């Protein structure tokens, strides 16, 4: 699945390069002067994020950990900060 996304990433990279080329030379030089080879920790975190996303996509396709009410268009609860926090025990008044 990851290999299938390479064309999308390639297009994204081309868009980023095009945007950088539109900047004034001094700005793009300053922006790119901070670029260096990624650290092993950064590579590990990127790999973990990609794998986590892939698992989430696969699980959603299988219906695992899927909020079926939401997926079927049911909106009986608010999906904002207040609605999502109403079940949080920290937000309940002490009895």
Description:
The chain is mainly alpha-helical. The protein has two domains: 1-36, no CATH class; 37-87. The protein contains five helices and no strands. It has helices at residues 6-22, 25-33, 40-62, 68-71, 81-85. The model has no long low-confidence stretch (mean pLDDT 77).
Mind sketching the topology for me?
Elements: H1 6-22, H2 25-33, H3 40-62, H4 68-71, H5 81-85
- H/E element order: HHHHH
Strand content: under 5%
Average pLDDT confidence is: 77
Instruction: Give the CA-CA distance, first to last residue.
Output: 51 Å
Radius of gyration: 21 Å
Helicity range: 55-70%
Largest sheet geometry: none
Secondary structure class reads mainly alpha
Instruction: Tally the structural domains.
Output: 2
Shape: elongated
Low-confidence stretches: none
The tally of beta strands, per DSSP, is 0
User: Count of helical segments?
Assistant: 5
List keywords for this structure.
single chain, 95 residues, mainly alpha, 2 domains, 5 helices, plasmid
What can be said about this structure in brief?
This protein is mainly α and 95 residues long. The protein contains five helices and no strands. It has two domains: 1-36, no CATH class; 37-87.
